[in-house]
């Protein structure tokens, strides 16, 4: 999950000021965490609290749905200026939150904790569907989240990149393109179908964790979210250098750091 947080923080200063090059400082005083980090940690908290309970499958997913809403609203209200889209902000503040048929990339940027904990691909896909559907219940919104957890699940198990590419090509998106081919014309796109494939290719072309993040930033677009998604996958495949991890964590406040530590404690059991 730290890979997603790092990607978000590194990409934060480029979201509305795209930098179509791999040459830049990873961290500056202008960087910050955004809604991608806040909602990723909210999902992690929901999963932790659900898994602590001894539940049969049907009840488990009902509780997971309720706790996803609970923690996304709680953290969203605690960090109201993190950069949410208008519809999602209204959902956060609603006393009766309902899904709104979104296919924005918010479903994909927050889903990485699922890929790290799932014991089977089937479990990962079900979690992605339930968690996404509290807001992003459009088929493309669910598809984007499921494509990301598929990549994380396979990368964590050291599948070859060619096999990961084949799985995504077959079941989700056509990713038979290179970043060099799209860099000059790619533009800001907050849909799953317009940013998830690009994030996956940023990972597939990456030679290291850091190189993957630089790839993601270099195409422009919704930079923090593309780097967030790519970083989550790259973490599983490459690991994360300690200096990059520690620098990114320094941008989190005490409350977000506490949830992150709770996640580390939970997955180490």
Write the layout of secondary structure elements.
Elements: H1 2-11, H2 35-51, H3 57-78, H4 86-93, H5 106-109, H6 112-117, H7 121-132, H8 139-156, H9 161-171, H10 179-182, H11 196-204, H12 209-218, H13 223-238, H14 242-249, H15 254-268
Condensed summary:
With 269 residues, the protein is an all-alpha fold. It contains 15 helices and no strands. It has one domain (2-24, 32-268): Orthogonal Bundle (ADP-ribosylglycohydrolase fold).
Protein described:
The chain is mostly helical. It has one domain: ADP-ribosylation/Crystallin J1 (ADP-ribosylglycohydrolase fold). It has 15 helices and no strands.
CATH superfamily descriptor: ADP-ribosylation/Crystallin J1
Shape: globular
The percentage helix is 55-70%
Number of strands: 0
CATH architecture: Orthogonal Bundle
Q: How much of the polypeptide forms β-strand, as a percent range?
A: under 5%
CATH top level label? Mainly Alpha
Q: Mean pLDDT, as a whole number?
A: 97
Please trace the helix and strand order, writing H or E for each element: HHHHHHHHHHHHHHH
Number of separate helices: 15
* Number of domains as seen in the coordinates: 1
| Class per helix and strand makeup | mainly alpha
Q: Radius of gyration, Cα only, in angstroms?
A: 17 Å
- Major sheet: none
